[in-house]
Amino acid sequence: MEALAKARLAAEEERRLQREGEERGAARLSELGRARKEVEEAAAALEAERPQVQAAEQHFRALEQRRQVCSSEREQLLAKQGRKGQFRTVEERNAALDEELRLREQKLEEARRKMDAGSQREEKKAEAQAQASEVATRGRKELAGKEKELKDLGSVVRGLGDQLDAGAEKLRLLRQDRNRAVREVDKVRQEVGTHRHRLEGTQPRANRQAVSAVLRWAEEQGFHDRIRGTLLSHLEVAPTFRAAVESFAGNALFNILAMDDDAAAQAVKHVRTRRLGAVVVTPLSQLPLKEHQLPAMEGVKALVDVVRCPSWARPAVQQVFGKAVVCLNMELCEEVAKRHGIDAISLDGDRVSRKGVITGGFQDPRRFVRLGLAEAIRAAEQRLEKAQSQMPELDAQIDTVGDEVNTLHNERRSRQDQRDLLRAEMQRLAEEVKHAEETIARSGRELQELQEWRHRMQVLIGECEASIAAKKAERASKSLTSPAADTKRLQSLTEQCKELEAEESKAQETYRQLRASLEEREAMLDSLLRPRLHALELEAASGSQDVALEKAEEAAQLEARLEREHREATEGAEATGQELQKVTQSCDQGRAALEQLLAEEQRCTDQAAQASVRVDQLAAEHATHETKKAEVDAKLRGLAAAPAEVEQCRQLTKPQLVQELSEANRALQGFQHVNRKAVEQYENFSEQLVDLRRRKEEIDTGESAIAEAIQQIDEQKEEAVLQTLRRVNGHFQQVFTEMVPGGVGKLRVIRRNDDVDMTGTQEAALGDILGVRIEVSFTGQVQSFLAMNQLSGGQKTVVALSLIFAIQRLEPAPFYLLDEVDAALDASYRSALANLVAKTARTSQMVLTTFRPETLEKADQCYRVYQQNRASRIDAVSRDQAAEVLREQDRMAEVEGLALM
Fold this sequence. Notes:
Layout: H1 2-86, H2 90-201, H3 205-221, E1 227-230, E2 236-237, H4 242-249, E3 256-258, H5 261-274, E4 281-283, E5 300-302, E6 307-308, H6 314-321, E7 324-327, H7 330-340, E8 343-346, E9 351-352, E10 358-359, H8 370-476, H9 484-542, H10 544-639, H11 643-650, H12 654-668, H13 678-739, E11 744-751, E12 769-777, H14 793-810, E13 815-819, H15 827-840, E14 845-849, H16 853-858, E15 862-868, E16 871-877, H17 879-900
Parallel strand pairs: 3-4, 7-8, 13-14
Antiparallel strand pairs: 1-3, 2-6, 5-7, 8-9, 9-10, 11-12, 15-16
Helix pairs in contact: 1-8, 1-9, 1-10, 2-8, 2-10, 3-5, 8-9, 10-13, 13-14
């Protein structure tokens, strides 16, 4: 239950985290989509605005270049006018102009060279920007594909997790089935052992050991096909005829069946050489299958026809049951035995021999259990074989499902590794895209700077070219004075420069505004939107949402598995409770049966005593009849003529024979009082003697069975007593420790030899227990155990209370009534007793009378009993009121004590 509660809390927490993760994941996905859309929109806006900025820039740069050229030409004209007063001759002017031209050409060449180098750098930056743009575009596409692949892999991993959970549940159920099959095998084996033990109990003692030894020997020697067990193990009889079959067969049911003479001889030799007892081994190869002619009458059936057996065992069945019939009642038995001279037996087991001797009488039907036990053993062995046959199949299924689970584990681990690699690849792609976009932004800024620098170089080149052209034109002139056209040109250039400056200023402002807006958008895109997009992409690539989802699913699966196990455990507990109730009922029935058996034992003992007296009487009568028989035999031998005398008489003449006859008649007159029916009586007495001897053997057998039953009952009684004493001793030691902290107490069984106590490992023989002694040590030292006669009154009370509560824990009662049991105890023992009573009161109602405050502290309800108007009354009072009553009682006792002094 604790594990289930923890699993429920963990599953709830994981579900909460899953919900929050799903919400955060949905928010991140939405934010990622918005970020991508914003980046795309911002990039599209930049691309749309960039041509306008470029056009404005070109217009501004063109105006600036025109203004610079115009200003340069104007400055050249002004310089030309200034040189009129600077130089006296044309040659001086030309020399100065040549120097300026040389410098200007050098400057122009330097500007062109720098412009070419700048163009090359600009081309490289443009190429790098294009490559970075291609990398970013390709990375975006690959990242989108990887995201889809990661999503598919997550679905696959979760599907494998579901399959793995289903496989684990299937494996658990299969293991439960196997454990159930193992328990069933053990249960059936125990059942087979119980039935065999009961069946062996019905065998004669000498035959029991010999039969078991032969069967073990045959199993060890591998004679399964030659020694086929007992006859009983192969017989099947309907319940109606079991009493008749068992009564007629007797101990012949335990005959060992051997397929040939050699196996039979070896089995007999094994028994004789080891003196194992008596056994009958039937060689089936020597028994002819002979059918006897039996009467066909209504209510009469051949006994061999009611016995079912394998065909190879039919000769043995024919030998035992072939010359007998089973009849519906005793009248038919007597009629069949008298008319047909065969043995007949009734359904109740009463038997009439072919000589007319009747045996039987009342027999307890519960005695005829051999066939029922044999059938129960066969059924249990079939169930055992069936249960054992299921074990390999269950093991194979467990191995198969285990392999499948391991395969799913491996595949899931492989998919998870693949997903981790994919996440790492996505993170790499995201970093690569981020680096490419940063490169694009940086390259764009550098290109912008290079373009501005190229424009300045172009302006410088234009200025230099205009200056060189003006100086060359001035050098070509032959005079130092400026023509009127130059003056007009100067005025025109001055006005044109003013106009170009105004247009340039306006174009510059327009370009500055557009450029500022574009830079602002680029800054937002590069410093805000793209970093946020990269962070979201890296977070999506990390797979934290999938991890949380998988953890939640695992927690849910664990909770479901524990829920199933809890449900199965609850159902198992209910089934166990019902089974326990049935076992309790069976125990009650067993106790009742034990009481009946004890009564039956007493009755059998009385019958055995009566039978013993009757046997003694029959033995005396037998001795008397034997004496009379000897006397009659002697007389008969005197009367009967020997063959030699007959031949002698044949040789005599007739007168001699007449004379001998007359002498014989005179001799016979001396035997007038002889009983002429002595021979018939002798035959009757002989048959009665045989019958009495057989009945004596049956009585002896019954006496042995009764003695064995008594011995078993005594053993069971002895074991029950010892087991009860052991349990009481355990509870006594525990209760005594609670009453006396640090003390030790035990119950010791007193035997005749006084060598073994109940804590030993030896088993007691029947009847050697004389009593039980209580030994305690209030100090906890083993050497200081004291007997009851060595204890004080308070210590004896502690021991007695410990024994009472120990017995109570063995067989708890619904309520207990204790009358001032703490009167002789000191304060520490009273406190310990109060704690013990409070502990016992959790399961049983305790009613205790006391005058001690320690008991009141643990009481749930207090009642005051007092006398009023010569009658006892009882009132419910609080604990404080009860304590006040006790204090008042103590004060009154002190006052009475002082008064007596």
